[in-house]
């Protein structure tokens, strides 16, 4: 069963979680995946390992870690892949993939142009 784990940085501001939950609900309405969860790299719960655990507990055999990060950097290039590698060792029967950051998507220019309008 396919799971989507929407991963954001995390913040001390409660707005972060208030924005992520409705975003995930919108994604879930259009996603073919059966499981949809969110997690944070730091400062907020659930953590990425907790989010992966939850997906597996719900029956995920494949997890797409959907990065809510604009660009590459230490978190995208090192920290999150290390967390995923640890989870992969914990759950060798689960296929875990990470998306590129949002800023690498071909539709980002159109999105920014729309925001300028």
Would you kindly provide a written description of the structure presented here, covering whatever features stand out?
The protein has a single domain, classed as Rossmann fold, CATH 3.40.50. Helix 2 runs parallel beside helix 3 (74-90). The protein has helices at 15-30, 48-57, 74-90, 108-116; strands at residues 2-8, 35-40, 62-67, 95-98. With 117 residues, the protein is of the alpha/beta class. It contains four helices and four strands, in the order E-H-E-H-E-H-E-H. The protein has a four-stranded parallel β-sheet with strand order 2-1-3-4, with helices on both faces. Helix 1 links the parallel strand 1 (2-8) and strand 2 (35-40).
Main sheet summary = 4 strands, parallel
Task: Give the radius of gyration.
Answer: 14 Å
Distance between the termini: 40 Å
Average pLDDT, rounded to a whole number, is 95
Tell me the β content. 15-25%
Strand order, sheet with most strands: 2-1-3-4
- The helical percent reads 40-55%
The helix count comes to 4
Detail the poorly predicted runs. none
Topology-level CATH name: Rossmann fold
Overall tally of domains: 1
Based on the structure given, which CATH architecture is correct? 3-Layer(aba) Sandwich
């Amino acid at each position: 069963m396919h799971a989507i784990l929407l991963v954001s940085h995390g913040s001390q501001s409660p707005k972060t979680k208030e924005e992520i939950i409705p975003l995930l609900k919108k994604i879930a309405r259009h996603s073919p995946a059966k499981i949809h969860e969110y997690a944070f790299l730091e400062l907020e719960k659930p953590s990425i390992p907790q989010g992966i655990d939850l997906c597996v507990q719900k029956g995920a055999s494949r997890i797409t870690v959907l990065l809510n990060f604009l660009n590459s950097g230490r978190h995208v290039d090192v920290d999150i892949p290390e967390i995923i590698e640890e989870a992969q060792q914990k759950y060798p029967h689960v296929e875990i993939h990470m998306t590129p950051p949002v800023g690498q998507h071909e539709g980002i220019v159109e999105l920014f142009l729309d925001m300028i309008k």
